[in-house]
Please model this.
Amino acid sequence: MKTIVCRCHDVTEEDLEAAIDAGYDDLETLKRISGVTTGHCQGKFCMLHSLDILARKKGKKISELTRIRPPLDPIPLGCLISLSKKSI
Amino acid sequence: MEDWRVYKHPILEFERGKEVTLYLDGKPMKAFENETILAAMYANGVRVFSRSIKYHRPRGFFCAIGRCSSCMMEVDGVPNVRTCITKVKDGMHLRRQKTFADKFAPFLNLLNLSPLAYNRMFTKPGIIYKPAMKIIRQFTGQGSFSKKIEESGEEIMGIDDEFSTELLIVGGGPAGLSAALEAGQRCDDVIVIDDKEQLGGQLNRQTHMFFSDVKYAAGKRGFKLGKEMVEKISKLKTVRVLPKTNAIAYYPMENKMLMLRSTDRGLMVKAKKYIVAVGAYEKTLLFENNDLPGIYGAGGVQTLLNIYGVKPGKKGLMLGTGNVSLIVAYQLLQAGIGVEAIVAPSFRRVSGYLVHAAKIRRHGVPIITRHTILRALGKQRVTGALITELDEKYRPIEGTEKRLDCDFICMGVGLTPSYDLIQLFNPKMVYSSELGGFVPVRDMQFRFAENAYIAGDCGGVEEATTAVLEGGLAGLYAARSLGYADEEVSAKIDEYEHALEEDRGSPFSSDIKAALQKITVENIEEVIK
Model:
């Protein structure tokens, strides 16, 4: 029986709580240790939950958002190659 | 094999097109050409699309709008294709993604390692780290590439790889379409992109009438409104529509947006102004087994049922008493699908409109408030749910657990604005629970960055009618700032502003109105870093 926070990387609620207890207590380090928000969907479904868990654990309000980097959706490498050929 | 399609519906008629054949892991399946892969598989009773990466759990679809990525499969040799937004083709070969790592997943499951353990494995002594990583890398990843190299995608009529335009509208939902309509009548060159084949966004799946007395949408069913708008836009020569195109990136320094055609082609656009109308997606709830196939977003069920006419199951459980979940519950009943109950933790009787709640009660569906879901039951798919009563502090009361029988669970617990593309414009992002999540600070003209406007649900979750109005306004504001300002534009802006004010006049919207006021500033230049 598991409570899944991140479907892409199979991160559970307990995983996150354990990681926060171990000292990874902000979203930037939390995502690097657990893989939450870094899956195929790029955190569309786990971002708010992980912020919620962080806020609950640390007794703070939700404020920060992790840095978003392109590409926003998974893309085939061929698409980037076709563009880079043009610019070379 | 059981056919899960709906053939008789009181409101909708489904245009399915010609019959085609798909192959799932080599087995043939009947499908229709207007269906997505997801709809076709659901119609054939397939529920498990893939296995999860670490614990090897079964995965089905959740959102059905190409956001959640849990419906990915290997299609004709290409891994990680989102089956919910990909149309079927005759003779398509589908495979559940399997990798070398999958064989070991059951053993690794038994160890039940936390992510902390994974990160510390084989790091000491330093000498074994590199060779160990080489081996461990073999165990990771989803899907595998085909050995064949794909030809690059088809040319798009009349569009180069790099081009510029006056106004680029991202998103073809109610807000995007309405913006395109208003801007297209005034500007010379407008482009609308959407990641689906059919424009209309949330409107396509809405079969209910809009209540509001705003003259732009009142008394029309959502999907009809969407069709009308798309038709009007197709008559405008100034608007180009690019369906099946994603916005992948935006670089503020170079002022370019990279887009992707579904056939592997990259595009670069440089626009003078952008309107971002990317909408919202569903929130989820955390409970045990919340990833089982059969647990969907309410919008996902709406898409499957109202657009493709495929039943999500036989008997469902609805979570949440907002308007979305009430409407979806009613639509399920309309299509002849049972609804076991509507469960919500709130202490109010219902948080949506009472008209909807009354319709549902007339069908004998109980609305159970002060209860929450504890766990979804079942191994491969949902077979039931365990709910429990809550005390005043929203803690579960022991001994009040109750088992409900259902074969799917629908989460209608609200939407959250899509923030990712917006954030690339470097605005100031603020969290607002009334508006559903992270939203950018904007000025009175919906500007959240120097050259970008926001419209619709992505700026704060409201209804389709407000999205239509906001979209229209954003289109007009953009046209005005592009130099198409005359008295007619100002008059139209006044008309829209008035209509928007009126639409938000009801007591239901007072919280939203206050929240919007908080994030609206006079001068946006001061806020942007």
Remarks:
- Chain B touches chain A through 59 residues (CB under 8 Å).
